[in-house]
Amino acid sequence: MFDGNDLSNWRANVEPESFSVEQGILKAHCNSESVRSHLFFVGDRGDDFIRFKNFELKAIVRGEPNSNSGIFFHTDFATRDQRLHLANGYEVQLNSAAREKRKTGSLYAIVDVIQAPTDDTQWFEVHVIVQDKRIVVNIVGRKVIDYVEPENPERPPNRKGRLLNPDGGAIALQAHDPDSVWYFKEIQLKRLPD
């Protein structure tokens, strides 16, 4: 998904300068306090994202101290508020910030990890598996989330789009705020049978 050279297969929804490639590494660093920027994998489609339903995603990541980010899946370009938080899909939280209680590996606001499973400031692997209604998140080879979306999931009003889409959805990386810097490399995705 990321070749270490450029972002030609990716598109930001806003603030494209929030994402750059430095020495073969994708850097996410939002310059704006007022919005969240997201980088969508579009492949060779240009403006439209590619839908992934069942898949395995692996990425090697690390954050600067006190930084927040996330990997979204089954999402799209829809936003839910003025800060442009994504309205649909799930977020695997990436968080080295002490002030944020939801730690790395959380399915944000659905199943939260309270204790950091690794030192987020050192390179580590995130491995996400989505198969039908099941979501598994592994951090450094350790399973931290094994969640099956129920038939009629209850969500808070501001998170009503936190659902798996039967048609699949986009993969997106988040640039959260000016104080947060995250790095991504070796981003790989394998489709799984439907």
Structure description:
The chain is 0% helix and 39% strand. By secondary structure, it is mainly β. The strands form 2 sheets. Strands 2-3-12-5-8-9-10 form a 7-stranded antiparallel sheet, with no helix packed on it. A 5-stranded antiparallel sheet has the order 1-4-11-6-7, with no helix packed on it. The radius of gyration is 15 Å and the shape is globular. It starts with 9 loop residues before the first strand and ends with a strand. The model has no long low-confidence stretch (mean pLDDT 94).
Strand and helix map with partners:
Blueprint: E1 10-12, E2 19-22, E3 25-28, E4 37-41, E5 55-63, E6 68-75, E7 90-95, E8 124-131, E9 134-139, E10 142-148, E11 170-175, E12 182-191
Keywords:
194 residues; mainly beta; seven-stranded antiparallel sheet; globular
Number of helices: 0
Strand order of the largest sheet: 2-3-12-5-8-9-10
Pattern of helices and strands:
EEEEEEEEEEEE
- Termini separation comes to 21 Å
Gyration radius, in Å: 15 Å
For the largest beta-sheet, the strand count, sense and barrel status come to: 7 strands, antiparallel
Q: Determine the structural class based on helices, strands and strand pairing.
A: mainly beta
**pLDDT under 50 segments (min length 5)?**
none
Mean pLDDT: 94
**What proportion strand?**
35-45%
Estimated helix fraction: under 10%
Global outline: globular
Total number of beta strands: 12
